[in-house]
Amino acid sequence: MHIQSSLVFSLSAATAFASTGSVAPTGSAPTGAVGYNSTQPHNGQQKHISELEEQVSSLKASLSSKLAASSSSCENAPSSLPSGAVSRESSPASTASATYTAAYETYSSAYDEAQKSSNSVLSTTSRSVSAPFVTDSGNSTASAGPTGTAASSSLVGTSGTSSSSASASSTAVSTYLPVLGDYNDEEISSGSAWKNVSDIADARLKARTSSGDCTYENARVRTEFRSMSNDQRKAFTDAIACLQSTEPRYTTAGSDAFPGVYTRYDEFVATHINMTYHIHGTADFLAWHRNFIHEFEAALGETCGYTGTLPYWDWAIDAGKVDQSEVFNGDEYSMGSNGMYIAGREDTYLGLQDTTFPPGTGGGCVMSGPFSNATYETHLGPLDSPYGNNVANQFDYNPRCLVRDLSNFFSERYNTYTNVTELVLGQPEIGNFQSLMQGFLGDNKFGVHGGGHWIGGGPSQLEDFHSSPSDPVFFIHHSMIDRIYSVWQNLDWDEREDAIDGTSTLLNSPPTAEMELSDVLSFGLVAEDKTFGDLMDTMSGPYCYRYE
Prior knowledge:
- The protein is mainly α.
- It has a domain at about 1-125.
- The chain contains 14 helices and 13 strands.
- The protein has helices spanning about 10-20, 45-70, 100-125, 185-190, 190-210, 230-245, 265-275, 285-305, 410-415, 415-425, 430-440, 445-455, 475-490, 495, and strands spanning about 1-5, 130-135, 140, 220, 340, 350, 355, 365, 375-380, 400, 520, 530, 545.
- The strands form six sheets. Strands 1-6-7 form a three-stranded mixed beta sheet, with no helix packed on it. It has a two-stranded antiparallel ribbon with strand order 2-3.
- A hairpin with a 4-residue loop joins strand 6 (about 350) and strand 7 (about 355).
- Pfam families: Tyrosinase.
- InterPro entries: Di-copper_centre_dom_sf, Tyrosinase/Hemocyanin, Tyrosinase_Cu-bd.
- This is Tyrosinase copper-binding domain-containing protein.
């Protein structure tokens, strides 16, 4: 059995960074004082929720303190873990110590209890306002009474309207904040609720962008990968292949500073590697990745003549059957196939999540379609693999094929419509929203973000904490993450547009100041630095795009 002590990809990286100070970001690190964290009373529950959040903040502080106290020479794995661990002594992201493991488990267990208490309050409060179900051609309302039971609602199709008993007028569509209790279990699990929530957010985005330089009508539109025509899909993957064969822009191929960077595409991978500890478990996780994939989209156009938009991958469609997905069917209009199937492999144990997962449905090189073994090789990483093949230095040249091991274990547990809907409707505050998304809260140890990476299986480039952009699926996965963030923001725009919470280091280790919207974010070999506050709205600043 392979053993990895990690959180999401691996929070063993946090201990290594705190102990050694390795992996400095390109450019100046973001600075700031007090961050902004929006709060809004919701049905008289805010006082109770605030008390719970104070408990969580205290737990986070305790965790950070224990992280900082961890030994600089981390042991590979606690002796109590299952045997068979692969040595990772040469990895820059060494395995977390038993001290850190205990700290995380204490925090996780305590938060879980607080979250259950919070959910109990949120799910049992009676409401008398109506929940609007918005579609492209109209809207309707459904009664929203006490939750905690399967609610009865009338979902609207692509035409017409319907309603059940409601005490608010249809104008509530502009202000009502949907909650989980507005939908029954079937609507949530099937994706109907998520579509309604997305439609509500889209209607509010449309209303606030009716005039100005960037409007709902002239914005670029990102669509789901499978909604693109075959020609559009091929143009997209051809442009990526072009970027993978184009000289670097900001450095020289094979330079002493970046020996593994040989292409413009490699510059994106190297930048993510270099910034890893400053863009995960931080205040800027969502905004930084929003701009990172925007710059990738721009590079496809500027360098390779791509005129389309960056699609997103709605992995919830594929939950439990990702190996059968059209996205990975291996034809010329896909994102390439699964990896070649390798039999007889062992389970892998992820220590900090206390999760053992079975081998996926592939395990070898991508066999056909774009990015197959015959057409593409990756040059950087891995740095955080549990399989004993980590490079000694973060930018080492390590040419190899793209590996995938598509995993239904992760897709059916962490990337379902239930996961997405509960995340967006159950977490009104940015701190908990971004933490649960990444798997830093309670008993959800991966979140939709980490789960989407681990769908790639292990070993694979997609699951590596540092070098995951080596697999082009990274960009359509993060486009989905950005879509979820955009929906969450637009549901309550006035409160959520500029909502941030946290510092500039992974789980605040080492401790740094709370980030501010005036902070400057570094994009290394990808693009010029950007101001945090300019990256909060997909319809302003450097952006003019929306999702459908």
